Amino acid sequence: MRSVSARTGLAQAVHALKSSATTIVFLTVPDSAVTGVASRLASGPPIPAVVAFVHASGALELGALAPLAGLHRVGSFHPLRSFPEPGPPDSFRNIVIAVDASSPSLLRVLNRLARDLGAKPRRVDDSQRALYHAAAVFASNYVVALVGVAIGLLEQLGWTEKDAIKGLTTLADGAVANVAKRGSTAALTGPIRRGDAETVRRHLTALAKGGRNTRRIDLYRMLGEVALEIAKEAGLEPVAAGQTRRALTRKVAATRRRSRQ
User: Fold this and answer.
1) Strand, coil or helix: what is 186?
2) Model confidence over 140-154: pLDDT tens digits?
3) Cβ-contact 243, 197 below 8 angstroms
4) pLDDT-derived band at 15, boundaries 50, 70, 90
5) In the chain, what are the domains?
6) Are 192 and 183 contacting, i.e. CB atoms less than 8 angstroms apart?
7) pLDDT tens digits, residue range 171-185?
């Protein structure tokens, strides 16, 4: 099987199509461009009907390829992995790849391709796509955002960005490894898991000092509430859970006023 990226240009893609009846064209363009590229392909030189078109978006449904779907099989092939820059083929090993297709035959081909790359295919259909991609954002993009907030806090203390990154990414790596080994409930540690309400109050007081951005306080409270629910599942006693919740939620308005002074 042969694949051609839409980034190589429409002319090259059409040329490649003529050389192989088993070609799959992967439209590896930004989400906002997928339907436009599909329209240009559909209105261009005739393309053999046996050719299939597949997008690599995690969020888009198969309908994004509607201009081609009347004549061609269409599908999706989304690696559940962060790619801030190009990576080697080994980047796909042991990851999950979300696949879907408009026909069983194309779905089988995409499943086989994922396995050939050393990945595990998992079907994610149109009805599941948005929630699937939201989960991916939580586990990837928002982790980066949270570590970025933590780096900023250490920089307030005089740490260099390099030292903050080194210390915090090691911590984050360990937390993720614990989730992989034990699951999220058993992996939770820290003051919320222990029901240490006093430490939570000290954190919020420190975050409120000096007129710092109130979003950090709101973020701490919001994530603390989520962590508290996990801690309760892990066995945190009701009394300690109640004390911790009060520490997270008390004097919200007062804390915000102090942070603006």
Assistant:
1) helix
2) 999 999 999 999 999
3) yes
4) very low
5) 3-127 (3.40.50.720), 138-260 (1.10.1040)
6) no
7) 999 999 999 999 999
Looking at the whole model, is its pTM more than 0.85? no
What are the structure tokens assigned to 14, written together? Answer: 């059409």
Contact partners, residue 194, CB within 8 Å, separation at least 6: 236, 240
**Per-residue exposure over 98-132, b if at least 16 CB sit within 10 Å of its own CB, e if not:** bbbbbeeebbebbbebbeebebebbebeeeebeeb
**Would you give the end-to-end CA distance of the chain in angstroms?**
64
Q: Write the DSSP string, 64-115.
A: GGHHHHTTS-EEEEEESS--SS---GGGGTT-EEEEEESSHHHHHHHHHHHH
Kindly state the DSSP code that residue 58 receives in the 8-state scheme.
S
Task: Write out the two tokens for 126.
Answer: 């149109």
Structure tokens at 63: 């309908």
Going edge to edge, which strands form the sheet with 3-5? 3-5, 24-27, 52-55, 74-79, 96-101, 120-123
pLDDT in tens, 23-65: 899 999 999 999 999 999 999 999 999 999 999 999 999 999 9
